[in-house]
Amino acid sequence: xxxxxxxxxxxxxxxxxxxxxxxxxxxxxxxxxxxxxxxxxxxxxxxxxxxxxxxxxxxxxxxxxxxxxxxxxxxxxxxxxxxxxxxxxxxxxxxxxxxxxxxxxxxxxxxxxxxxxxxxxxxxxxxxxxxxxxxxxxxxxxxxxxxxxxxxxxxxxxxxxxxxxxxxxxxxxxxxxxxxxxxxxxxxxxxxxxxxxxxxxxxxxxxxxxxxxxxxxxxxxxxxxxxxxxxxxxxxxxxxxxxxxxxxxxxxxxxxxxxxxxxxxxxxxxxxxxx
Length: 275
Description:
The protein is α/β, with parallel strands linked by helices.
Protein backbone atom coordinates (compact mmCIF):
# COMPACT_ATOMS: atom_id res chain seq x y z
CA UNK A 1 0.00 0.00 0.00
CA UNK A 2 1.34 3.41 -0.90
CA UNK A 3 1.13 5.69 2.14
CA UNK A 4 -0.09 9.26 1.96
CA UNK A 5 1.77 12.07 3.71
CA UNK A 6 -0.90 12.24 6.41
CA UNK A 7 -0.68 8.49 6.96
CA UNK A 8 3.09 8.68 7.23
CA UNK A 9 2.81 11.31 9.95
CA UNK A 10 1.52 8.78 12.50
CA UNK A 11 3.37 5.74 11.20
CA UNK A 12 6.70 7.50 10.77
CA UNK A 13 6.56 9.29 14.11
CA UNK A 14 6.05 5.94 15.81
CA UNK A 15 8.32 3.84 13.60
CA UNK A 16 10.89 3.32 16.36
CA UNK A 17 8.31 2.43 18.99
CA UNK A 18 7.20 -1.08 19.87
CA UNK A 19 4.49 -2.27 17.48
CA UNK A 20 2.79 -5.67 17.32
CA UNK A 21 3.63 -7.72 14.25
CA UNK A 22 0.10 -8.21 12.96
CA UNK A 23 -3.20 -6.31 13.25
CA UNK A 24 -6.31 -7.85 14.76
CA UNK A 25 -9.83 -7.50 13.37
CA UNK A 26 -12.11 -5.41 15.58
CA UNK A 27 -15.86 -4.80 15.53
CA UNK A 28 -17.42 -1.53 16.67
CA UNK A 29 -19.52 -2.61 19.67
CA UNK A 30 -20.66 0.80 20.93
CA UNK A 31 -20.33 4.51 20.13
CA UNK A 32 -20.75 7.10 22.90
CA UNK A 33 -20.62 10.90 22.94
CA UNK A 34 -18.30 12.06 25.72
CA UNK A 35 -18.41 15.77 24.84
CA UNK A 36 -19.63 17.99 22.00
CA UNK A 37 -16.40 17.17 20.10
CA UNK A 38 -15.41 13.72 21.37
CA UNK A 39 -16.64 10.17 20.84
CA UNK A 40 -15.68 6.96 22.62
CA UNK A 41 -15.55 3.82 20.50
CA UNK A 42 -15.74 0.41 22.17
CA UNK A 43 -14.16 -2.27 19.99
CA UNK A 44 -14.83 -5.99 20.36
CA UNK A 45 -11.56 -7.82 19.78
CA UNK A 46 -10.08 -11.24 20.35
CA UNK A 47 -8.82 -11.85 23.88
CA UNK A 48 -5.65 -13.10 22.19
CA UNK A 49 -4.79 -9.43 21.70
CA UNK A 50 -2.84 -8.00 24.61
CA UNK A 51 -1.74 -4.54 25.70
CA UNK A 52 -0.47 -2.60 28.69
CA UNK A 53 -2.43 0.30 30.16
CA UNK A 54 -1.28 3.46 28.39
CA UNK A 55 -0.46 1.95 25.01
CA UNK A 56 -2.05 2.98 21.68
CA UNK A 57 -3.36 1.33 18.55
CA UNK A 58 -2.98 1.80 14.85
CA UNK A 59 -6.59 2.25 13.70
CA UNK A 60 -6.93 0.79 10.20
CA UNK A 61 -10.17 1.52 8.32
CA UNK A 62 -10.96 -0.61 5.25
CA UNK A 63 -10.61 1.46 2.08
CA UNK A 64 -9.00 4.40 3.92
CA UNK A 65 -5.25 4.83 3.20
CA UNK A 66 -4.68 7.05 6.24
CA UNK A 67 -3.95 5.07 9.39
CA UNK A 68 -5.09 6.65 12.65
CA UNK A 69 -3.27 6.43 15.96
CA UNK A 70 -5.38 6.47 19.13
CA UNK A 71 -4.53 5.80 22.75
CA UNK A 72 -6.38 3.02 24.53
CA UNK A 73 -8.40 4.50 27.39
CA UNK A 74 -9.58 1.21 28.87
CA UNK A 75 -7.73 -1.42 30.88
CA UNK A 76 -6.33 -4.87 30.18
CA UNK A 77 -8.71 -6.09 32.88
CA UNK A 78 -11.69 -4.90 30.79
CA UNK A 79 -10.36 -6.79 27.78
CA UNK A 80 -10.05 -9.97 29.86
CA UNK A 81 -13.58 -9.56 31.28
CA UNK A 82 -15.52 -8.25 28.29
CA UNK A 83 -13.40 -8.77 25.20
CA UNK A 84 -13.41 -5.04 24.42
CA UNK A 85 -11.04 -2.09 24.38
CA UNK A 86 -11.96 1.60 24.17
CA UNK A 87 -10.50 4.57 22.31
CA UNK A 88 -11.44 8.24 22.27
CA UNK A 89 -11.54 10.24 19.04
CA UNK A 90 -11.80 14.02 18.92
CA UNK A 91 -13.42 15.67 15.89
CA UNK A 92 -10.84 16.95 13.39
CA UNK A 93 -10.19 17.03 9.61
CA UNK A 94 -7.94 13.97 9.97
CA UNK A 95 -9.56 11.27 7.75
CA UNK A 96 -9.85 8.56 10.46
CA UNK A 97 -11.48 11.10 12.81
CA UNK A 98 -13.89 12.16 10.06
CA UNK A 99 -14.81 8.51 9.55
CA UNK A 100 -15.43 7.97 13.27
CA UNK A 101 -17.61 11.07 13.62
CA UNK A 102 -19.51 10.83 10.34
CA UNK A 103 -19.51 7.23 9.08
CA UNK A 104 -18.76 4.86 11.94
CA UNK A 105 -21.65 2.65 13.08
CA UNK A 106 -22.15 -0.36 15.37
CA UNK A 107 -20.86 -3.59 13.82
CA UNK A 108 -18.47 -1.76 11.47
CA UNK A 109 -15.25 -3.78 11.13
CA UNK A 110 -11.75 -2.27 11.33
CA UNK A 111 -8.29 -3.55 12.19
CA UNK A 112 -6.17 -2.57 15.18
CA UNK A 113 -2.50 -3.05 16.00
CA UNK A 114 -1.11 -2.35 19.47
CA UNK A 115 1.98 -0.16 19.89
CA UNK A 116 3.77 2.14 22.31
CA UNK A 117 6.65 2.11 24.77
CA UNK A 118 5.12 4.36 27.47
CA UNK A 119 2.77 2.46 29.73
CA UNK A 120 2.11 1.41 33.31
CA UNK A 121 4.52 -1.20 34.70
CA UNK A 122 3.76 -3.42 37.68
CA UNK A 123 6.87 -2.09 39.45
CA UNK A 124 5.34 1.40 39.44
CA UNK A 125 2.58 0.12 41.75
CA UNK A 126 4.99 -0.79 44.53
CA UNK A 127 4.31 0.71 47.99
CA UNK A 128 7.34 3.01 47.71
CA UNK A 129 6.18 4.48 44.37
CA UNK A 130 3.74 7.25 43.53
CA UNK A 131 2.04 8.13 40.25
CA UNK A 132 1.38 11.64 38.96
CA UNK A 133 -0.63 11.99 35.74
CA UNK A 134 -0.60 15.32 33.89
CA UNK A 135 -3.16 15.53 31.07
CA UNK A 136 -3.94 18.19 28.49
CA UNK A 137 -7.12 17.85 26.42
CA UNK A 138 -7.54 14.51 24.66
CA UNK A 139 -4.26 13.48 26.31
CA UNK A 140 -6.38 12.22 29.19
CA UNK A 141 -7.10 9.05 27.16
CA UNK A 142 -4.09 6.85 28.05
CA UNK A 143 -3.74 8.40 31.50
CA UNK A 144 -7.35 7.55 32.35
CA UNK A 145 -6.65 3.97 31.31
CA UNK A 146 -3.62 3.87 33.60
CA UNK A 147 -5.56 5.42 36.49
CA UNK A 148 -8.25 2.77 36.13
CA UNK A 149 -5.70 -0.03 35.83
CA UNK A 150 -3.95 1.15 39.00
CA UNK A 151 -7.29 1.32 40.82
CA UNK A 152 -8.31 -2.15 39.62
CA UNK A 153 -4.98 -3.59 40.76
CA UNK A 154 -6.08 -2.82 44.35
CA UNK A 155 -2.58 -1.91 45.52
CA UNK A 156 -1.72 0.93 47.90
CA UNK A 157 0.02 3.08 45.25
CA UNK A 158 -0.40 6.82 45.78
CA UNK A 159 -1.72 8.68 42.74
CA UNK A 160 -2.73 12.17 41.64
CA UNK A 161 -4.10 13.72 38.46
CA UNK A 162 -3.71 17.23 37.03
CA UNK A 163 -6.12 17.57 34.10
CA UNK A 164 -6.57 20.62 31.84
CA UNK A 165 -9.07 21.13 29.00
CA UNK A 166 -10.33 24.11 27.05
CA UNK A 167 -13.76 24.12 28.74
CA UNK A 168 -15.54 22.21 31.47
CA UNK A 169 -17.58 20.39 28.79
CA UNK A 170 -14.35 18.96 27.42
CA UNK A 171 -13.26 17.42 30.73
CA UNK A 172 -14.16 13.95 29.52
CA UNK A 173 -14.36 11.12 32.07
CA UNK A 174 -14.86 13.69 34.84
CA UNK A 175 -17.65 11.79 36.60
CA UNK A 176 -15.63 8.56 36.45
CA UNK A 177 -12.52 10.34 37.76
CA UNK A 178 -14.55 11.91 40.57
CA UNK A 179 -15.72 8.41 41.52
CA UNK A 180 -12.11 7.19 41.62
CA UNK A 181 -11.14 10.19 43.76
CA UNK A 182 -13.87 9.52 46.32
CA UNK A 183 -13.48 5.74 46.33
CA UNK A 184 -10.94 3.27 47.71
CA UNK A 185 -8.32 4.29 45.12
CA UNK A 186 -8.06 7.68 46.89
CA UNK A 187 -6.75 9.60 43.88
CA UNK A 188 -6.12 13.33 44.39
CA UNK A 189 -7.40 15.47 41.49
CA UNK A 190 -7.08 19.03 40.19
CA UNK A 191 -9.05 20.18 37.14
CA UNK A 192 -8.06 23.19 35.02
CA UNK A 193 -9.79 24.96 32.11
CA UNK A 194 -8.33 27.60 29.80
CA UNK A 195 -11.68 29.07 28.71
CA UNK A 196 -14.00 29.09 31.73
CA UNK A 197 -17.62 29.89 30.96
CA UNK A 198 -17.93 32.39 33.80
CA UNK A 199 -16.37 33.31 37.09
CA UNK A 200 -19.00 31.24 38.86
CA UNK A 201 -17.64 28.08 37.23
CA UNK A 202 -14.06 28.82 38.26
CA UNK A 203 -12.34 27.58 41.36
CA UNK A 204 -12.53 29.70 44.48
CA UNK A 205 -8.98 28.58 45.17
CA UNK A 206 -6.93 30.29 42.42
CA UNK A 207 -3.72 28.44 43.25
CA UNK A 208 -5.48 25.22 42.28
CA UNK A 209 -4.44 22.79 45.05
CA UNK A 210 -5.25 19.15 44.63
CA UNK A 211 -8.49 18.01 46.16
CA UNK A 212 -7.68 15.71 49.03
CA UNK A 213 -8.15 12.03 48.41
CA UNK A 214 -11.61 10.74 49.37
CA UNK A 215 -13.08 14.26 49.01
CA UNK A 216 -15.03 15.99 46.26
CA UNK A 217 -12.56 17.49 43.76
CA UNK A 218 -12.47 21.25 43.32
CA UNK A 219 -14.22 22.77 40.34
CA UNK A 220 -11.90 23.73 37.54
CA UNK A 221 -9.10 26.24 38.09
CA UNK A 222 -9.24 28.88 35.29
CA UNK A 223 -5.69 28.54 33.93
CA UNK A 224 -3.22 26.08 32.46
CA UNK A 225 -1.24 23.59 34.52
CA UNK A 226 2.12 25.01 35.57
CA UNK A 227 5.36 23.49 36.79
CA UNK A 228 4.48 24.86 40.24
CA UNK A 229 1.32 22.72 40.21
CA UNK A 230 3.42 19.68 39.37
CA UNK A 231 5.93 20.50 42.10
CA UNK A 232 3.17 20.77 44.72
CA UNK A 233 1.56 17.57 43.53
CA UNK A 234 4.83 15.66 43.84
CA UNK A 235 5.28 17.02 47.38
CA UNK A 236 1.82 15.72 48.27
CA UNK A 237 2.83 12.28 46.97
CA UNK A 238 5.99 12.09 49.06
CA UNK A 239 8.45 13.97 46.88
CA UNK A 240 10.07 13.63 43.44
CA UNK A 241 12.26 10.69 44.43
CA UNK A 242 9.14 8.53 44.80
CA UNK A 243 7.11 9.83 41.87
CA UNK A 244 6.69 8.58 38.33
CA UNK A 245 5.23 11.40 36.21
CA UNK A 246 3.24 10.65 33.06
CA UNK A 247 2.60 13.53 30.64
CA UNK A 248 0.17 13.43 27.73
CA UNK A 249 -1.14 16.42 25.83
CA UNK A 250 -0.50 18.73 22.90
CA UNK A 251 3.11 19.33 21.82
CA UNK A 252 3.13 22.86 23.26
CA UNK A 253 2.28 21.50 26.70
CA UNK A 254 5.00 18.85 26.54
CA UNK A 255 7.56 21.39 25.33
CA UNK A 256 6.67 23.78 28.16
CA UNK A 257 6.64 21.27 31.01
CA UNK A 258 9.08 18.47 30.16
CA UNK A 259 12.32 20.46 30.59
CA UNK A 260 11.49 22.00 33.99
CA UNK A 261 10.03 18.66 35.08
CA UNK A 262 13.24 16.76 34.34
CA UNK A 263 15.10 19.38 36.40
CA UNK A 264 13.02 18.38 39.44
CA UNK A 265 14.49 14.85 39.16
CA UNK A 266 11.41 12.71 39.72
CA UNK A 267 11.77 8.94 39.80
CA UNK A 268 10.67 8.85 36.17
CA UNK A 269 9.29 11.14 33.44
CA UNK A 270 7.28 9.30 30.82
CA UNK A 271 5.77 10.66 27.59
CA UNK A 272 5.70 10.11 23.84
CA UNK A 273 5.63 12.89 21.25
CA UNK A 274 3.72 11.39 18.36
CA UNK A 275 1.06 14.01 17.59
